[in-house]
Design goal:
With 253 residues, the chain is of the alpha+beta class. The chain has 11 helices and 11 strands. The protein has 2 domains: 91 residues, Arc Repressor Mutant, subunit A, CATH 1.10.10; 147 residues, no CATH class.
């Protein structure tokens, strides 16, 4: 009887600690400015305090206070270089959590109020980076094409097939040894613009790196949006059978 009471007590303690941690984490993201900062940092790059303040439309002093809380909670890491303070998401796991919250919340960008804003939103929905992997219409098309070709299986959870591993090797994509990393090799991530899954995890990151180094994609300015190059359209059509129209930027011929 004593043992049973002890086990029950431990469970309650663990449950209480977990609830407190979840509540604390949720409270951080419940603030509009802090949520804006975390979403902006999904581009995987380090931003200065001033850049984030302008993006969030708050004073630098205000942004600094919010950044301090996010760093203290372990969501962000900071680096100082000269007089500049750079901030970025702590790791891929944190990015995945932010991304999942955005998808679960049904996040949609506010309607654009200008022609340039409309073009920006279309570009982001078409293809963008999400921390270290691809998202948007093109990323979803890649996941679906890989599934159709038998490179992925969803039977017992998402996984690469033997053909999928061979396909990656043929492209020259080597998956890093994750060791004891808590990051999954492959993860399905619900795309909040398309509402269908794209690929994240180690495989998603490796595909994104290859797309950049092989010249398949290039960034559009300083945003998260990327464009599929002629080389990229030809390669994705050849290797995955994705039609070129799907890969073309909206509004282009």
């Amino acid at each position: 009887m004593v043992a049973e009471t002890s086990v029950r007590h431990d469970w309650r303690m663990d449950s209480g600690s977990a609830a407190a941690a979840v509540a604390s984490w949720a409270a951080l993201l419940a603030d509009h400015t802090r949520a804006t900062v975390c979403l902006a940092l999904l581009d995987g790059r380090a931003w200065t305090l001033g850049e984030l303040a302008r993006h969030a439309r708050v004073a630098v002093s205000t942004l600094s206070q919010h950044a301090d809380r996010l760093v203290a909670a372990g969501l962000l890491v900071q680096h100082r270089q000269g007089r500049h303070r750079y901030l970025q998401l702590a790791d891929a796991h944190t990015a995945s959590l932010i991304e999942a919250v955005a998808a679960a919340a049904g996040h949609h960008p506010a309607p654009a109020r200008s022609l340039s804003g409309v073009h920006r939103d279309r570009a982001l929905a078409h293809a963008r980076t999400c921390y270290d992997h691809l998202a948007g219409t093109v990323a979803v098309a890649i996941a679906e094409a890989m599934t159709h070709q038998g490179l992925l299986t969803w039977r017992h959870g998402l996984a690469l097939t033997t053909d999928g591993l061979t396909w990656l090797e043929d492209l020259g994509i080597a998956l890093p040894d994750t060791g004891d990393s808590r990051r999954p090799v492959l993860r399905a991530c619900l795309d909040f613009t398309v509402r269908r899954p794209h690929l994240a995890g180690t495989v998603g990151a490796a595909l994104c790196r290859h797309a950049f180094t092989a010249g398949w994609i290039t960034r559009i300015g300083t945003s998260r949006a990327v464009t599929i190059t002629t080389t990229g359209r030809q390669a994705m059509a050849r290797h995955l059978g994705i039609d070129e129209q799907t890969l073309r930027q909206p509004g282009t011929v």
